[in-house]
Design goal:
Blueprint lengths: L7 H20 L4 H12 L19 H5 L12 H6 L18 H12 L45 H12 L10 H13 L5 H9 L5 H11 L1 H14 L18 H12 L4 H14 L4 H4 L18 H24 L18 H11 L2 E2 L3 E2 L3 H37 L2 H7 L10 E21 L9 E2 L1 E6 L15 E3 L26 E2 L4 E18 L14 E10 L6 E5 L8 H12 L2 H23 L5 E2 L3 E2 L6 E4 L7 E5 L22 H12 L5 H16 L20 H13 L4 H9 L2 H4 L6 H6 L12 E2 L2 H11 L15 E5 L3 E5 L24 H4 L18 H9 L1 H18 L3 H13 L5 H14 L1 H8 L3 H4 E2 L1
Antiparallel strand pairs: 1-12, 2-11, 3-8, 3-9, 4-7, 5-8, 6-8, 9-10, 13-14, 15-18, 16-17
């Protein structure tokens, strides 16, 4: 049917209706909370909040709007806010800066609100809208989940609750699981998963041959009881908590006493310590059990991350560095234990999750007293025993020191009473760092030596004095500096050693004719040898020439010296010294007075006291020292604490106190401490709140981590982020059930391992099925067991074990696969050769930040500057090149060849058979045997071993 044209009266009626509606709308009261607040939240508060306050304006509350004339209640024309949100043309003041301009109905709404008095309910605060709110799945209480009924599933898939959850999901996608893996594959998979090492050939044969229904459960129990279990799963946790044994940042100095924390992690996991207790010890072990080293060391977690120790004299920069340090602790804690990116709320409310900036600074207040560093960690008994042993010795030391110093003080006092005498004796100007000159009678010299007898100590400098240029001048009107290397002269002197940096401190710098770069000495002499003997009468040397920028910062300088000359290098004549120069400082003056005024009787008494004091000091040194570990120090940090606008410590805003997150569901626990709460109480309260049974986050996060390391991917594939930007659970009901099981088992991990590994889901084969992969390419629904490559540590450990060289010694300081060089900054040079001291499990490697360690770095061992909740798995040419050519694998190939000859004799067929057992846990096929015998016959048994160590089957797990 054709439409009829509207008549004029119809159009007029419609226009009249719209006019009446608009008039009614203008008169309708504005609901601030339902209309205005959401508009301001979505369009304005991202820039104009107490956290950011661009233009010094916050729209979270009415104060700034009213104080600055942005809003004049009842007067839209006088309200500047309406001008900036509805500008004419290209007004640079137009708002909002981000996104589209406000639509006319939105501007009209603000105008009506102002006309009606700009009412803002008391206490109402507007926050920027986040993508997730308090209804977000991970913030809700754990649900009471029961495994689904799966009547259609085979009997084996109806026994374990895990299998029922997985089967139900597979059924929804019309998928079926794979058949079980063969027993040889299964023991290899389980042994690697729980210990990070392969089963021996004998263990495989015993398991495969067993027809006992309990063989597999007994295998799991045996592996969980192995000390290797803690080493394997301890490494997973150390990845999460960014454990590293160097300080990071540009200086990156090594930390040599953090290894007790690594051992604590491994020991705790082997003991199956309840994980809620483990978390509490990480955050407050020193509070829970002071003077109990095996618990107190847990709080080293707080300082196990990188921190900037360069220091800065600018107070603003120092405050910013301190804020960055606490931020690192906040991020590590929130991501490891809560699976939340709380660090994103440092400068503003979280853009995606219901985490406010106030939440961030509540945690900032909690950690404000944590300081990086080392301290003694000991039991009360150890401290008391040491105090008892030192008590009398310290008293003797103090008394002998007092008597010795009294002798010196009296001598110095005698000298001070003869000021005029010493003023005449020390008549020349003091030595100058900028330029020190000595003139003497003309003398023929081939060699000139500076003999340093004292240094002017600078508190910012290391030991060793510095000289940037040493000049030797000839006599006569046309005097020349003949010390220059360009004139054929050479300079010899011991230099401060710093490995690859040695050249930067060479004595040659003193005669290069350039100022700035210094020779940094480690000995008392600098000797200049001229090209030929010449008559000289003047020398000049310096450390800091005017207008020169020293390349090595502050250095000590000479305070006492002698100048000697020689023609033949054997007979030396002193031509000048500093003895009649004025002292460079008070310490130098006292030293001179002491040397001049001590009588023979004084010296005899001093020597007697020094001998007695040396004996006492020796006895003190023999008293065992208390262990000193890198566990951090604590300051009171009493506050008050503030929210920082834009994250800047220079812009403090509202006061905050330590407290819990505000965004969890109402049933979650909550706390807020008073401003004067003790530092220890702040951390203990946070620890207790995190592991409170009503806090659902840690249980979910931990259960997910366990699942991830058994299946390669977690039920949530972003293990550190359970927020809006993280992944969604592939099996949400299963995750809830696993988290509840964890709590039911008192937070112990081993029962959960056992439950998972006894499931049919875990025992599936890894067979690839094209039809299934087209539905679920990543096998997130678990229709098969996804193969994985061994981790970097596993690759190295496996090679060592196969070669018969793996040292299973546990604990203690780590070994190093690099040479450590340190000057102002640290350098880690990878070792080309690895000796037997490095043949321990890789978890005991001294894990420094930004240190390349060849094989493990190539196989994606992460840099511990950040949390690594999951490992990358790359395939690169460098992996093959390293495995083929590094001295480590070449050595291991040789050792494996020697092992084969010992265990299999000279029979090539037996050697190949044994090699396959060791490398792959199976026998070779007839074709493989033939090919290997041929290769070994042509190139030698080590060459065959080298090939076997470079095969994919060795490093992939199915």
């Amino acid at each position: 049917m054709k439409s009829r044209p509207l008549c004029f009266t119809t159009l007029a009626a419609i226009a009249l209706s719209f006019s009446l509606l608009n008039a009614a709308e203008k008169k309708a009261p504005v609901d601030f909370e339902q209309e205005v607040a959401p508009l301001l939240s979505q369009r304005c508060v991202s820039c104009h909040s107490p956290n950011i306050k661009k233009g010094e304006l916050s729209l979270a509350g009415p104060e700034d709007l009213l104080a600055n004339g942005y809003v004049v209640p009842g007067d839209p024309a006088g309200s500047y806010l309406l001008e900036v949100v509805s500008p004419a043309g290209d007004d640079p003041a137009a708002m909002p800066k981000l996104g589209d301009a406000l639509a006319e109905p939105e501007v009209a709404l603000l105008r009506r609100w102002i006309e009606q008095g700009a009412v803002w309910p008391d206490g109402f605060v507007i926050r920027e809208a986040s993508k997730a709110d308090r209804s977000w799945w991970s913030l809700q209480p754990l649900a009471d989940i029961h495994p689904p009924e799966v009547a259609a599933a085979p009997a084996a898939w109806r026994q374990n609750p895990i299998d029922r959850f997985v089967w139900a999901k597979l059924s929804e996608a019309n998928l079926k699981p794979n058949s079980p893996a063969d027993r040889r594959t299964l023991i290899r998979r389980a042994t690697f998963d729980l210990t990070g090492l392969p089963p021996t050939a004998e263990e495989i044969d015993t398991f495969v041959a067993s027809d006992s229904p309990d063989a597999y459960p007994q295998l799991i129990d045996r592996l969980l009881a192995s000390p290797r279990y803690g080493e394997r799963w301890g490494r997973h946790w150390l990845d999460v908590i960014r454990f590293g044994e160097s300080r990071g940042f540009e200086r990156n100095q090594i930390i040599t006493n953090l290894w007790p924390f690594r051992d604590y992690v491994i020991r705790s996991i082997n003991e199956d310590k309840p994980f809620d207790q483990f978390i509490r010890e990480h955050l407050a072990g020193d509070v829970i059990a002071p003077n109990t080293p095996q618990v107190e060391v847990g709080s080293a977690f707080l300082v196990a991350g990188p921190y900037d120790d360069v220091g800065n004299q600018d107070p603003a920069q120092a405050a910013q560095i301190r804020a960055n340090t606490i931020d690192e602790i906040i991020r590590a804690s929130s991501e490891a234990f809560l699976g939340l990116t709380i660090g994103c709320a440092r400068c503003h409310d979280h853009k995606f999750d219901v985490i406010s900036q106030r939440d961030y600074y509540a945690m900032y207040a909690t950690f404000a007293g944590v300081k990086h560093g080392e301290r003694a960690v000991a039991t009360s008994e150890q401290r008391q025993e040491r105090d008892r042993q030192l008590g009398d010795l310290k008293k003797q030391q103090a008394e002998l020191t007092r008597q010795r110093d009294d002798v010196k003080k009296l001598a110095i006092a005698r000298g001070e009473s003869q000021k005029e005498h010493y003023a005449q004796l020390w008549s020349r100007p003091a030595i100058s760092r900028q330029s020190t000159e000595e003139k003497f009678a003309p003398v023929l010299a081939k060699m000139i030596r500076l003999e340093v007898e004292g240094q002017e100590r600078d508190p910012n400098s290391k030991s060793g004095y510095g000289i940037d240029e040493f000049e030797i001048w000839t006599t006569g009107e046309n005097s020349q500096n003949i010390a220059l290397s360009s004139a054929g002269s050479t300079a010899v002197g011991s230099s401060r050693s710093a490995g690859d940096f040695d050249g930067a401190y060479s004595a040659a710098l003193t005669i290069d004719g350039k100022f700035g770069a210094r020779w940094l000495a480690s000995g008392p002499q600098l000797t200049i040898t001229l090209a030929e003997p010449q008559t000289v009468d003047r020398i000049l040397f310096s450390s800091d020439r005017p207008d020169a920028a020293p390349s090595h910062g502050v250095a000590n300088f000479v305070s006492e010296y002698r100048i000697l000359v020689s023609v033949d290098g054997e007979n030396w004549t002193e031509v000048a010294n500093s003895y009649n120069r004025q002292p460079v400082n008070d310490a130098h003056r006292r030293k001179r007075l002491l040397a001049a005024e001590l009588t023979d009787e004084d010296r005899a008494r001093s020597q007697e006291l020094e001998t007695e004091l040396a004996a006492v000091n020796k006895a003190i040194n023999q008293v065992p020292a208390l262990p000193v570990w890198w566990v951090g120090n604590r300051s009171a940090a009493p506050g008050p604490f503030h929210l920082f606008i834009g994250g800047s410590p220079q812009r403090p805003a509202d006061e905050v106190t330590a407290g819990s997150l505000s965004g969890l569901a109402d049933s979650a626990p909550k706390y807020e401490l008073p401003q004067d709460a003790a530092e220890s109480e702040r951390r203990l309260q946070l620890a207790n709140w995190i592991v409170d049974p009503q806090n659902p986050l840690p249980q979910r996060v931990l259960a997910n981590r366990i699942w991830q390391h058994h299946f390669g991917t977690g039920i949530v594939n972003t293990p550190n982020d359970f927020g809006y930007m993280g992944g969604r659970p592939s099996h949400p009901e299963l995750l809830e059930w696993l988290a509840a099981e964890l709590v039911k088992n008192d937070w112990r991990l081993k029962p959960l391992h056992r439950q998972i590994m006894l499931s049919q889901t875990y025992q599936q084969s890894s067979e690839h099925r094209t039809a299934a992969s087209q539905v679920d390419g990543d096998a997130r629904l678990l229709w098969r067991f996804s193969p994985r490559r061994l981790s970097a540590e596993e690759v190295r450990d496996v090679i060592l074990q196969i070669a018969g060289k793996l040292n299973l010694e546990m604990g203690g300081p780590g070994f190093r696969l690099y040479q450590y060089l340190q000057d102002n900054v640290a350098t880690y040079v990878p070792l080309d050769e690895h000796d037997a001291s490095t043949y321990r499990r890789a978890v005991y490697h001294h894990n420094a930040r930004a240190a390349r360690i060849d094989l493990m770095t190539e196989f994606d061992s992460p840099d511990c500057a950040f949390s690594a909740p999951r490992r990358d798995e790359t395939t690169t040419p460098l992996q093959a090149l390293t495995m083929l050519n590094h001295d480590f694998t070449l050595d291991m190939a040789q050792f494996l060849a020697e092992r084969l000859q010992t265990e299999a004799g000279d029979d090539p067929q037996q050697q190949v058979h044994r090699a396959y057992e060791l490398c792959y846990g199976r026998s070779p096929t007839e074709a493989e045997t033939k090919a290997c015998i041929s290769l070994a016959g042509e190139h030698g048994l080590p060459a065959l071993c080298r090939v076997l160590l470079n095969t994919s089957e060795l490093i992939y797990l199915h």
